[in-house]
Please model this.
Amino acid sequence: MPKKRKKKEHNVQTFRAGVGAILLNEDGKVLGLERRDIPGAWQLPQGGLEENETPVEAVKREIHEETGIEASNLEFIASMPRWLAYELPEEARRKKLGRGQVQRWFLFRFRGSDEAITLGDQKEFRAWRWIGMDELTSMVVAFKQPVYQELAEYFKSHLDNLL
Model:
């Protein structure tokens, strides 16, 4: 009887579809969230796209889940015209996460009070603060920095016109 070959594990090659949001306050700062699992690493609200969900529905759901902010406190300003992708480091890849994410990004003005920000269930993030987009970009994990740099550049004209 021939020996069965052990299946070779393959690297996960899929990219998870997701969304992200830049929330801008009246002072021109963006809402930064500090990751619980990587202290000192900050990011914008983001997450996966669920089955049968549009990117706009997903981004409003993710904002609410991660920050507690209701859609009624958001004013849509603009969206990135194309999807942006980042790759996870090989050691962080999992079946659910895949090789990385491809995301649709949105810019909103936050129209509520800071008391509306509750960090949702507090599992993913440990802190939040209003911060300049350039400063936030320097505080994000390295593999996401190219996406954040592209967001900062694309939305710069929008942000400058709103202040």
Summary: The radius of gyration is 17 Å. Confidence is low (pLDDT under 50) at residues 6-10. Residues 145-162 form the longest helix (18 residues).
